[in-house]
Amino acid sequence: MMTQYLSPQTLLFRVFICLSLLTLAPLSAANGLIPRAPDVDARGYLLMDAKSGQVIVEHNAEQELPPASLTKMMTAYLVEKEIAAGNITEQEMVPISVKAWRMGGSRMFIQEGTRVSVQDLLKGVVIQSGNDASVALAEYVAGSEEAFADLMNNQARELGMDDTHFMNATGWPAENHYTTAHDLAILARAIIRDFPEHYDLYAQKEFTYNGITQHNRNLLLWRDDSVDGLKTGHTEEAGYCLVSSAKQDGMRLIAVVMGTDSEAARARESQKLLSYGFRFYETYEGYGAGDVLDTPAVWMGAANQVRLGLEEDLILTVPKDSQDQLKASMTIRPELRAPIREGEQYGTLTVTLADETVAQRPLVALENVEEAGFFAKIWDHVVLFFKGLFS
To answer: So which residues are the catalytic ones?
Structure first.
């Protein structure tokens, strides 16, 4: 067996994380007890299960803060959406404007008057955090960066990012340009879910363009093999920010930290959140969308019963080793009468853990049930009449 040797820096970092977790509280996750979350030195932060969308830890997660280059996550999302829709291709060559070429801050070092492929520009946005690449793509997709910002805000509304407003494609400081830790987690989840074919970009550690090699500023990509994204950001106003994601044993977590005081701090505080989530929680995948959960009787219908189930998969985030304590119960609307319409709610599924409700989902009809003929309806009316007399 090959022996793996760790650098002193990596060894010290791992020891620090272990000690941080050990000092949280002497509680047992196996017994369903969860220690308090670690203290995180950031202005706002959040830990989310990517599959369930459930928030595990949060602090000031709804506070509007400047996102710096975390803005580029939305820029990349819209470009990936355009590719998926067939409106542009990765091989298309994008003309570079004077505005894009003159952008300050982090850059890909593209040249005015040249043409660069969409694929290379997307790498420049995600890996190198290029302001120039971001503006070039914004202009190519929407005609101008201002018009692209309108697309960004429309997309934010569609995703449910209700506390976000963009003024540009880069995160360059601007009045009325803000988001929240919670909204950024929503965006990260959408990137992972909607465009998996592009997600490997966020794990690439370096990219070379125009003879210049630049490294991804997400330090966790070097420190933790389970981390495979997403994006860093920094301005004097925003501080050091990081949206990261990692996957272990089928569970994917998203961590957002905003407003830390250094590049090392944003990596360290993000690692605290990820380590806490993986150690004490797990993703539970229960009933699937379309699974038949009950078949109650239907009165006055062409069929005697109807299949009920869920519109979406039931996915929960629960304490480790607590799945056998989950209990599900259903309440069905009494005396269902035709017509029954597919997709309409006719009951509720409730899931509890230790007598605490952890989820409620609508039970919907999985099929239509039309009204019965005249004589069958008359018969059911008679049966219901006598049933009511003796109930």
So the answer is: 69, 72, 129
Residue 18 pLDDT class (50, 70, 90 cuts): very low
Confidence of residue 20 (pLDDT cuts 50, 70, 90): very low
Eight-state DSSP code of residue 112: T
Distance CA 128, CA 104 (A): 13
Residues near 131 by Cβ (< 8 Å), separated by ≥ 6? 103, 104, 105, 106, 107, 170, 172
CA-nearest of 66, 67, 77 to 126 is 77
Sheet holding 251-260, edge to edge: 55-59, 44-49, 251-260, 239-248, 227-235
pTM for the model stands at 0.86
Amino acid identity of residue 381, one-letter, is: H
pLDDT tens-digit readout, 154-205:
999 999 999 999 999 999 999 999 999 999 999 999 999 999 999 999 999 9
Nearest to 185 by CA among 120, 115, 277, 94: 277
Q: What is the pLDDT of residues 329-368, one digit of tens each?
A: 999 998 898 899 999 999 999 999 988 999 999 999 999 9
Q: Which of 261, 351, 355, 343 is nearest to 307 (CA)?
A: 343
Higher-confidence position of 34 and 95: 95
Contact at 8 Å (CB) between 187 and 207? no
Residue 62 neighbours by CB distance under 10 Å: 13
Of the chain, the end-to-end C-alpha distance in Å amounts to 73
Q: What band does 390 get if pLDDT is binned at 50, 70 and 90?
A: low
Does residue 60 sit in helix, strand or coil? coil
Q: Helices 118-126 and 131-142 sit at what angle, rounded to 10 degrees?
A: 130
Helix, strand, or coil (residue 277): helix
